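Pasting as-is:
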Amino acid sequence: MKLVRAVIKAVKLGEVKAALRKTGVRLLKEDAIVIHGRNKGETIFMRGAGRMVDFIEKVKLEIAVPDELVGKIVEIIGSAAMTGRAGDCRFQILPLVGTI
């Protein structure tokens, strides 16, 4: 078993969850997170004015999957989370020794 962690843009959460449901994934953990890092923020336009935001809201997903499905899950999340901009999706794949 592996633990797949994916950090995606919050606006893509619905699309990612729908794509995972189609493949049979029913249990996942999601956390709202705020990050500050290499992407140096985004310019957000509100009421016609641009404003630089250093901290970006994202969602962290954690899914426990069998070893043979890791590649498929990463591909599904990556394609569903794609917006064409930097910082679409980041993955960590960790060994999962057991659960209680």
